[in-house]
Amino acid sequence: MRIAVNTRFLLSDYLEGYGNFLYETFSRITKNYPEHEFIFIFDRPFDKKFIMAENVIPVVAGPAARHPVLWKYWYDVNVPAILKKYKADVFVSCDGFCSLTTRVPQCLLIHDLSFLHFPAFIQRSHFLFYKYYTPKFLQKANSIVTVSEFSKQDIIAQYKIETGKISIVPNAVKEIFQPLPDIEKEAVKNKYTDGNDYFVYAGAIHPRKNLTNLLKAFSIFKKRQKSNWKLVLAGRLAWKYKQFVEKLKTYKHREDVVLTGYLEEKELVKIVGSAYALVYPSVWEGFGVPVLEAMRCHVPVIISENSAMQEIAGKAALYIKPTDPNDIAEKMILLYKDENLRSELIEKGKHTGDKYSWDRSAAILWQCIMKAMR
C-alpha cells in the first residue's frame, strides 16, 4: 500500500504544532509498517532527517505554499498530480487542508477552529480562506482527526459533521521533557535570569496567546510582591507580534522580562524545567502541548479556563480568566506564596502527563488512515 503524506510543515528551522505532530506520529508509523510505502510531499527543500525510514519516498512540489493562492494551487493541482503519479492509496494531511480535486481517499487532521472564534488574530486573507474552505475540506475528507474532545465537539457544533466521522488522536510529549537536577536549574537561572526564580511562557508570540495580559498581570505581581523574579517568554516571533514588541520596549518591568526567541528543543527543556511555574494564558487552544511539557518536567501550570487545556489538565492546574490580568496575577501570587499548593500541583501533573504518549497516538492515527480507505 502507498500512503501519501502532506509534510510541508516538517521544517528544519522550526518544528512546532503541525510539524511536531507529523514528525512524532510518522517516525513511528513508517517504522511500524515497513511493508508499506510512504510518499512524503514537501513544498520546499527538506532536511534529510525527515526521511525517517527506508520505505519513505520524498517528493518536492513547489512553489512553497505560503499564502491562500498558493495553498489552492498546491492542494488542488500539485498534490493530485503526485497522488496519480505514485498511485497513492490514501492521502494524509495534518494541517487542516486537503485536496478538493482528487478522488484518492483522504484522512484530514484539523487541530482546532480558533480562526472562527478569534478571526482578528490572523491575517484577513487567511481567515477568508479558512472560513470558505474548511467546511468543504471536512465534507471531502473520508475520515477526520482532531486532537481533543473539545475540538471534536466544536467541529460538530460548527459544521454539523456526524460524530462517527471524527476520531481523537491527542498530542503527546517527547521523552526529552524530564525533571532537571537542581544544579542544572541553577545554571539555567544564572544564564537567563541572573540567578532569579521566574515564571515561564513557552510558545509562539502572537495575539491568540494573550501575552499583553500576561505582561499586565506580571506588573501587578511585581507591584504587590516587590520581588526580583523574572518572566521568561520562550518562543519565536510568529505573526502580528510587532505591537507586542513595541509595548515591551516601554514596559515598566522590561528589564525583568526575558524574550528568548526560538529555542532548540534541548534548550527549551532547560528553560521550562527550571521555571517556578508555567503561565499559559492563551485564549483558545485545541490542545496545549506546553502544558503537558511542563508537567512532565515537574513544573506546575497556570492556564486558561474554558478550552481544551482544561480537558487535558483536569485538577492538575490553576485556572485563570485569560481576559482578566488581575485574575492571572492572583494565581501567580497564590502559587508564589503557597509551596504546599505548588507541590500538590506538581504531583497531580506527573500522573496527567503520563496519560499521553506518541506511541499510542501513532497507533490511533494509523487506524484513522485505514478508516479513510474503508
Report what the structure shows.
This protein has 374 residues and is α/β, with parallel strands linked by helices. The chain is built from 14 helices and 13 strands. Strands 3-2-1-4-5-6-7 form a seven-stranded parallel beta sheet, with helices on both faces. A six-stranded parallel beta sheet has the order 10-9-8-11-12-13, sandwiched between helices. The relative contact order is 0.12. The model has no long low-confidence stretch (mean pLDDT 93).
Provide keyphrases for this structure:
Rossmann fold; single chain; 14 helices; 374 residues; 15% strand
- Measured between the Cα atoms of the first and last residue, the distance is 14 Å
Q: What is the count of β-strands?
A: 13
Count of separate structural domains: 2
Strand-pairing-aware structural class: alpha/beta
In short:
This protein is an alpha/beta fold. Helices cover 44% and strands 15% of the residues. A seven-stranded parallel sheet has the order 3-2-1-4-5-6-7, with helices on both faces. Strands 10-9-8-11-12-13 form a six-stranded parallel sheet, with helices on both faces.
Spell out the blueprint of helices and strands.
Layout: E1 2-6, H1 18-32, E2 37-42, E3 56-60, H2 68-85, E4 90-93, E5 106-109, H3 114-117, H4 124-140, E6 143-146, H5 149-159, E7 166-168, H6 182-192, E8 198-202, H7 211-225, E9 230-234, H8 242-249, E10 257-259, H9 265-273, E11 277-280, H10 289-296, E12 301-304, H11 308-313, E13 318-320, H12 325-337, H13 339-353, H14 358-373
Parallel strand pairs: 1-2, 1-4, 2-3, 4-5, 5-6, 6-7, 8-9, 8-11, 9-10, 11-12, 12-13
